[in-house]
Amino acid sequence: MFYVGRDSCKYCNIPEEKILHRTPVSFIMFGSQLHPGHVKIIYREHVEDIRELPPRIQNALWSDVMKTARAVDRVFRPDRLNYQLLGNWEPHIHWHIYPRYRTDPDWGQPPILHWKVDGRRVSPGPTKMKEIPLAEEQAGAFKEALKKEFS
Ligand SMILES: [Zn+2]
After folding, report:
1. What is the distance in A from the centroid of ligand 1 to the CA of 12?
2. How far apart are the C-alpha atoms of 103 and 146, rounded to whole Å?
């Protein structure tokens, strides 16, 4: 159980310019670009476990995830997509969509968790991985793709 007030909650205070799209139930924003094209779909309210939501809202969220996945696929052309549903650090359930590429150093492994360094498998944590900033035109193309999916 979280005891985070809305004033101090990171996801209740996402800077407007970081929000790529809003739906009636979620915000969509880029995640860290350790996996280029990584996005998050964040439920708007303070709920920590999807089981707490009525089916109607669960379905609306899943629809947002699938529409976002189609936009990711269209713009970033990954070889595969990975999905993760979390709510551990912030009191908002949220999905991560990780585009995966055959050229990833961790291709075939769960995202972020297992990277090979000098032939050894390590779990360096996100701070040791390198973000690849998105080109402005790629970010713009993704925003447009989202607009199409949600229209
Ligand atoms: Zn919040």
Report:
1. 4
2. 26
